[in-house]
Automatic annotation (TrEMBL):
A GO-annotated cellular component: membrane
A Pfam family it matches: Polysacc_deac_1
Any one GO MF annotation of this record: hydrolase activity, acting on carbon-nitrogen (but not peptide) bonds
GO biological process: carbohydrate metabolic process
Keywords: Hydrolase, Metal-binding
InterPro entries (UniProt xref): Glyco_hydro/deAcase_b/a-brl, NODB_dom, Polysacc_deacetylase_ArnD
CDD domains: CE4_NodB_like_6s_7s
The UniProt record lists the keyword Hydrolase: yes
Organism of derivation: freshwater metagenome
Species lineage: unclassified sequences, metagenomes, ecological metagenomes
Domain NodB homology: 21-204
Alphabetized Gene3D superfamilies for the sequence: Glycoside hydrolase/deacetylase (3.20.20.370)
Extent of the signal sequence: none
Protein name listed in UniProt: Unannotated protein
Length: 281
């Protein structure tokens, strides 16, 4: 329905930050009893489930197998579905890469259809993940903001709404969680919708956002080319290992934390340098 500006293997941070005032809502870790259906019902009550649903659910394939009726309801109500790995049991890039294709097999069995969009659990980066996405014709979709609704103990619904209000921008891919114990996030959704609309933004389907103007890639922040920062690391260091994992994890943290103090940023950059030096040794 929408032109595809991204290329297989891209690691996407957001839509066009200089473009129209549009945002997309995404949810991770479902499908889940009560929560997933409640999120869809909030959207329906807000008039955002007319021709199709305006949330993209990044599903854990094993959860979809555990709750197939809920997964099929998401599909039948026209919501977007993305691949969020088979188990969500690892943040190891190689193991995650190996879970993408089996998860696709699960979605094919449930829907006779497979997603084009993936999201790494924990926003894990790695050249092996991006290579597997490229092989399967997929992109890896991250976010440009961290809302902290995943923290334990859970933050309140009002805090989640305030975090959305504080970080919203054109092209924002809003990352929420509904799988598991995320009642606060579910309860925050009506307020999130109100904040988005009060700021003059329109909620659009993720595929539409990714077709509007240009796409900001994660790598653009550091090296200004269309490739994952881990590709550069792997080429320099001769492979992906635990030190490379530390580097890309810390760089992801820097990329997504625009309000860090200079002291905190310097400390994280020093840890990156230490990890690189340890790998070379």
């Amino acid at each position: 329905m929408w032109p595809r500006l991204w290329r297989p293997g891209d690691l996407i941070r957001s839509g066009d930050v200089n473009g129209p005032p549009i945002v997309s809502i995404t949810c991770d870790d479902g499908p889940w009893p009560v929560n997933t259906q409640a999120m869809m019902n909030h959207m329906r009550n807000a008039g955002l489930e007319q021709h199709y649903g305006l949330i993209h659910f990044f599903m854990v394939a094993n959860n979809a197998l555990m709750f197939p009726d809920i997964a099929r309801e998401v599909f039948e109500r026209g919501y977007g579905i993305g691949n969020h790995s088979l188990t969500h049991a690892t943040y190891n890039p190689t193991r995650l890469a190996n879970e993408i294709s089996p998860a696709q097999d699960v979605f094919a069995s449930l829907f006779n259809w497979t997603p084009e969009l993936f999201r790494s659990p924990g926003l894990t980066q790695g050249v092996v993940i991006q290579n597997e996405c490229a092989r399967l014709g997929m992109a890896n979709v991250f976010t440009s903001t961290i809302l902290n609704d995943f923290l334990a103990p859970r933050i309140s619904s009002s805090q989640i709404i305030n975090n959305v209000a504080r970080t919203i921008h054109p092209g924002n891919i809003i990352l929420l969680h509904e799988g598991g114990s995320h009642t606060q996030t579910v309860n925050a959704l009506p307020g999130i919708i109100d904040v988005i609309h009060s700021r003059g933004y329109e909620i659009v389907r993720l595929e539409e956002l990714l077709s509007a103007g240009t796409i900001q890639l994660m790598a653009d922040v550091y090296i200004g080319i269309r490739s994952d920062v881990a590709i550069a690391d792997a080429a320099e260091l001769g492979g992906v290992d635990e030190f490379t994992d530390v580097v890309v994890e810390l760089r992801t943290y820097l990329e997504l934390s625009s309000n860090l103090s200079p002291e905190r940023r310097a400390m994280v950059e020093a840890r990156i340098a230490e990890a690189l030096q340890a790998r070379r040794a």
